[in-house]
Design a protein that fits this description.
Layout: E1 4-9, H1 15-24, E2 28-33, H2 38-44, E3 48-51, E4 77-80, H3 82-90, E5 94-110, E6 130-142, E7 148-152, E8 160-163, E9 168-171, H4 183-194, H5 203-218, E10 223-226, H6 231-244, E11 248-254, H7 262-272, E12 279-282, H8 284-290, H9 297-319, E13 324-326, H10 331-337, E14 363-365, H11 373-382, H12 387-390, H13 410-429, E15 438-452, E16 455-468, E17 476-477, H14 482-495, E18 499-504
Parallel strand pairs: 1-2, 1-3, 3-4, 4-9, 10-11, 10-13, 11-12, 13-14, 16-18
Antiparallel strand pairs: 5-6, 5-7, 7-8, 8-9, 15-16, 16-17
Length: about 525
Amino acid sequence: MKNSVLILDFGSQYTKLIARRIRDLNVYSEIVPFTISLKKIKALNPGALIFSGGPSSVYEKNAPKISPEILKAGIPILGICYGLQLIAYLSGMVIEPAKSREYGLANLEINKKQKSSPSDLLLKSIKNHSKVWMSHGDKISKYPRDFIVTGRTKNSEVAVIESKKRKIFGVQFHPEVVHTAKGKKIMSNFLFGIAGLKPDWSMENFIKSTLIRIKDEIGEDRVILGLSGGVDSTVLTLLMKKAVGDQLRPVFIDTGLLRKNEYNDLMFKFKHQLNLKVTGIRAADIFLKNLVNIRSPEKKRKIIGRTFIDVFRQAEKKIGKVQFLAQGTLYPDVIESVSVNGPSVTIKSHHNVGGLPAKMNWKLIEPLKELFKDEVRKVGIELGLDREFINRHPFPGPGLAVRIIGKITRDKIKKLQEADAILIEELLNFKIYDFIWQAFIVLLPVRTVGVMGDIRTYENVAVIRLVNSVDGMTADWYPAPYDFLKKVSNRIVNEVKGINRITYDLTSKPPGTIEWE
């Protein structure tokens, strides 16, 4: 791992984005718990270390800490936000609560007095007053002489510190998020200018190494795979098929919560376009029975996760004994559901992560769980997957269950399916489908008075949700053309019985999430 980066995770929701930015620069990275020992680090022999941000303050009683000896290992280190403050704390600097917390965009003021040979490293080619993304409540007030301060903001006197002698660097802001204007350049300066790494990692290399790992893990055993038709599970299916061939048993389950006509359409494409031997199971009755009167989105996801396992067990009786369950879980699912590598906060459980039962008959294999959606699409392209599948919008594993707020009924599902079909049809007609990350309708448990002709109506409200994103971790609402919104709204209220009002969601992520539940 000499030409790679180890990222010590201290619980930031952005930790995976660090790995993502490093991969964008074609360097392999791996996230490890902050509890990793110096012995293990030396055994892995990385070319650089990055300390992530985190929700804690270094002076809290149970704040995550590392051995100070790691700072003396001679490995180039970059600390980000909490990672910077931890470096400062372990180096004898003074950390204290800032008078004013700093969240959002700030101007980075480069200390030109320090802009000399030793410090023209991390901020090389970065212009003064570049925008950076802040998210902290503490600050560094005193630092030792072998560190120099090369950047500050209005509320942070110490926003960038550098020690060429120690090979230790730190930033108070988050260079890994897209909001930091020159974040990629700062990461590049650290990786190539400071750590001396080489850009030799690619999706092609990922596929090669993953195929080897899958073969080693599966051996001669057989694998059942939950195929949904989304890009994640479809790419996973092709990857698994390439690795283990006929040992793979893909299963497509009709949960009753799919889009309109989706089960039949996808079964045809699986068999005739992708040449897959897929077992199709219609299980709407059992899913909807288990969801009767369930309102909580967390309960919905967990029930759906358990029901999938029950149906897979029934499928095993048809297809023969299997030892592994393969899932197209991605990292945004993982980081929002459970704390994997550090003390990150759970946002919501996903049916295929936090929703799975504690005990199963199979071993779980998730080869894509360290990737983001756009990276999965790149893998699909490398595997020769048709653009029709590559460009499909994300669709949640729980399906329409998390787009019906409140109790789920067959009548609500039908309304939502019809409204969703109209939305997708018009996105294609207006030729904007491929310019949007995700588009869907949410059905609210709210009814409003309307009038059609001379008749009073009292029907449901539906919400149009269109967002753009790069990796699913952050997103912004899409400024749809008025003509498009007018057409979709008119069609839904006229063609879908039971919906008489349409609204448009203008919420970004954060503070919202992409899905409503």
